[in-house]
Design brief:
With 333 residues, this protein is of the alpha/beta class. The protein contains 13 helices and 12 strands. Helices cover 38% and strands 15% of the residues. Strands 1, 2, 4, 5, 7, 8, 11 and 12 form an 8-stranded mixed sheet that branches. The relative contact order is 0.18. A motif (DGA/G) lies at residues 219-221.
């Protein structure tokens, strides 16, 4: 028996998140996603949750997703502290030590790559959903609830973004209920900031931390890569079965445990992060109720951090197709 879906959850997975477009394509075609009221996600899943929360037709969601230049996402631009170094001197330093910008960034901001390109891209996509004459950016979770300032007065789906507060060693849910005055683009930026791969987010913003001490945030996947239990609390449980919300549907990726050769700092960081999430996979494997409400996508050997991809190339088409087929298979089993 399939219950009506009112909550949708997306797992983290880097560029594998392209497969979620295929999932959404199928769910829209079957009239499923149109009835979803709430969306949650971690990392790549947070991006999907954010864009799908706009409550747009599928073709518009896909157009937004396809406007992201994946090759620019891991950005190794000059750190602001190093911009005063003359180019010839910086060139000689690079020859001695490698990419000095990235080395400095990982020491200063705890991540090899900048997330500025992605952050500004998402800010633009969000701004396009609002009437700037009624309110200027940035736009917060509170703004996502205010239909009066939305273009066409369109109602958004309730949005829940998962991050990790390294300072407190805890998972953090960003939402209208918990952080109403937090910028949504900043929440998603935090959620997709893979530890050491992307720079961490350091903030004293009271809208996020409710205190003046510096808090350091990173990828929500460190502690909750698949937040399938987000809506299992009583206030969301429209149909409760053994403590699980049967009106929740999740989308995630098939786990692959295999040998990986580690040859440099980036491959070390990638495999370290995969190891961190393995315990979460073990928990999922022992939860038949979570398995029963999950679309599982087999992405074969595509790497979650292979950003050398563009819309409609072979890898993009493969991931999209795998997502569509996984959703179709879920509803036909």
């Amino acid at each position: 028996m399939r219950y009506p879906v009112t909550n949708m959850v997306f797992e983290g997975g880097g560029v594998l998140g392209i497969a979620y477009l295929g999932v959404l394509d199928y769910l829209y075609s079957q009239g499923v996603f149109q009835n979803v009221k709430r969306v949650a996600g971690t990392s790549a899943g947070a991006i999907t949750a954010c864009v799908s929360s706009f409550n747009l037709p599928f073709n518009e969601i896909k157009a937004i997703a396809d406007s992201l230049d994946y090759r620019k996402v891991p950005q190794s631009k000059a750190h602001s502290d190093l911009k005063h170094i003359p180019a010839p001197i910086k060139h000689e330093i690079d020859k001695l030590f490698g990419d000095v910008n990235s080395i400095y960034r990982i020491v200063k901001n705890y991540g090899w790559y900048s997330t500025d390109y992605f952050y500004h891209w998402l800010q633009e996509q969000i701004a396009n959903q609002f009437d700037s004459k009624k309110k200027k950016p940035p736009y917060t979770f509170r703004d996502f609830q205010n239909t009066d300032i939305h273009r066409s007065n369109r109602t958004f789906k309730d949005l829940y973004i998962i991050g990790t507060n390294i300072s407190y060693k805890t998972s953090k849910v960003f939402s209208y209920e918990t952080t109403p005055d937090m910028e949504v683009a900043e929440a998603v930026r935090i959620s997709m900031s893979i530890p050491l791969f992307f720079e961490a987010v350091k903030t004293t913003d009271p809208a996020i931390t409710a205190e003046t001490k510096v808090n350091v945030f990173c990828d929500g996947g460190v502690m909750d890569n698949y937040p399938i239990n987000t809506f299992d609390y009583p206030r969301f449980n429209e149909t409760k079965h053994y403590g699980f919300n049967v009106n929740t549907l999740g989308a995630r990726f098939k786990s692959k445990v295999k040998y990986s050769e580690i040859t440099n700092i980036l491959s070390y960081i990638k495999n370290l992060n995969l190891a961190l999430t393995q315990i979460q996979q073990d928990i999922y494997n022992h939860s038949p109720y979570d398995q029963a409400r999950s679309i599982v996508i087999d992405t074969k050997d595509v790497s979650s951090t292979d950003f050398n991809i563009s819309p409609h190339d072979a890898t993009y088409n493969f991931l999209y197709s795998q997502g569509y087929l996984a959703a179709k298979g879920f509803y036909r089993q």
